[in-house]
Amino acid sequence: HLEKDYWTKMKDIPQRRRRIYTHFFLGNGIGLDKYVHKRKFDKITKGFSVSEKRLKWFSGEAWKMTEIATMLKRVSGWTEDRVVYLEGPQKKKFNIRPLFVPSVPHSNENITFYLGFTFRGPVACNILVKK
Prior knowledge:
A hairpin with a 2-residue loop joins β6 (110-118) and β7 (121-129). The longest helix has 10 residues, at 50-59. The protein has one domain. Helix content is 27%, strand content 32%. It has helices at 2-10, 39-44, 50-59, 61-64, 66-71; strands at 24-26, 35-37, 74-80, 83-87, 93-98, 110-118, 121-129. It is an alpha+beta fold. The protein is built from five helices and seven strands; from the N terminus they run αββααααβββββ.
């Protein structure tokens, strides 16, 4: 239902302004603490200017910050033909939209990523190939 509501709301907005905003991430906590709101990241990066924050997120440096890396849980998945998948309950295959499409490997690989949640559904952030 969220995706339908998303498209209802976004139908009149030009393509260039349609951004995917990640509101929550899967964390290492227990219970409701498993969900980390993006505002917690703002508290960690509040010492930086707005342009520095943007640069850190776009370059991927923010994911490497120890405070953020310890707060979030890395999830294992795989790619098939540049599509990211996650194994769910009962061996069900879930298609996960990548937040940054060029980060998806070209070949079929086992990967890890942070799982984010948007109004369009789950997204894969900071995709890394498993070694």
